[in-house]
Amino acid sequence: MLTVFKPVAEKPLKPLASLLKTVNPNVISLLGLVFPTIFFVLVLRHLYVWALIVFVFNGVDLLDGMVARMTNRVTTFGGFLDSTIDRYADFAALSALSFAGIVSWDIVAPLIMFSYLISYMRTRIEYMAKGKVTASVGIMERTERLVGIFIALLLFALFPHTMLFGHNLAAAVFFILTVLSGITVAQRFRFAYQKL
Predict the structure, then answer these.
(1) What's the predicted TM-score (pTM) here?
(2) Is the pLDDT higher at 192 or at 170?
(3) Over the stretch 70-87, which tens digit does the pLDDT of each residue have?
(4) Which stretch of DSSP H or E encloses residue 140?
(5) C-alpha pair distances (Å), 8 with each of 14, 184, 185
(6) DSSP for residue 21
(7) Average pLDDT for residues 159-180, to the nearest whole number?
(8) Collapsed DSSP state (helix, strand, coil) of residue 94
(9) Which structural domain, as residue segments, surrounds residue 175?
(10) Cα 24–25–31 angle (5° rounding)?
(11) Those residues with Cβ within 8 angstroms of residue 116's Cβ, 6 or more apart along the chain or in another chain
């Protein structure tokens, strides 16, 4: 859903992408390991404001593709590397709140599973359709999930003792993300059934 706003998000990053034209896009992709790791550590140390600031820098994930397109260095391996690092970043961001004791594993574990299934299903559908379809269907893609994680931690940082149905606000947001992710898996399954 929010993927349609990608061009808007890329606009303010264009000057930075221009500065990085001489850098190999794969090197920029590897930065995708740094910020999620720092976020993970900060959340575990309960430094939520710093964690939220660092989380915003996940936007550098857009830079590698921008630089690659700008310099005609788009490669299949680059896409593979970026996608692989995204999976690491997803796990670091989602599991951080559970390891920190903010959201219980019984909510986080299904969300991680659905997150990986959503990504896997898109890749598999597009591969089996031999590139004839784009399977970015469903209400919960990676961008929505990242926004949800940010909102969950922000709400917990602002209102740590506010409860909703016996859970803190971060857990409530994660529960919503889990439900929407499950719906997205069903939507992609239906899409695959119709298109393959």
Answers:
(1) 0.86
(2) 170
(3) 888 888 888 888 889 989
(4) none
(5) 11, 24, 27
(6) T
(7) 94
(8) helix
(9) 2-195
(10) 105
(11) 87, 90
* Residue 167, strand partner residues: 164
Tokens coding 39: 């976020």
Q: What is the CATH number of the domain that holds 148?
A: 1.20.120.1760
CB within 8 Å of 163: residues ≥ 6 apart: none
Residue reference for tokens 């909102």: 151
Tokens 């903010």 sit on residue: 102
First to last CA, the chain: 23
What pLDDT is recorded for position 75? 83
Give the span between the Cα atoms of 146 and 137, in whole angstroms: 17
Q: Which two tokens stand for residue 42?
A: 């900060």
Helix or strand holding residue 163 (H, E): strand 163-164
Using the structure block, give the residue that is written with the tokens 């019984």: 106
What is the number of domains present in the chain?
A: 1
Q: Which residues pair with 163 in a beta bridge?
A: 168
- Contact indicator for 94, 112 with CB cutoff of 8 Å: yes
User: How many C-beta atoms lie closer than 10 Å to residue 130's C-beta?
Assistant: 7
**How confident is residue 13, by pLDDT bands cut at 50, 70 and 90?**
low
* Top-ranked range on mean pLDDT: pick from 73-82, 147-156, 158-167: 147-156
Average the pLDDT over 27-42 and give the result.
90
Both tokens assigned to 29: 């992709």
pLDDT band at 3 (very low <50, low <70, confident <90, very high): low
User: Where does residue 28 rank: exposed (0-12), middle (13-18), buried (19+ CB within 10 A)?
Assistant: buried
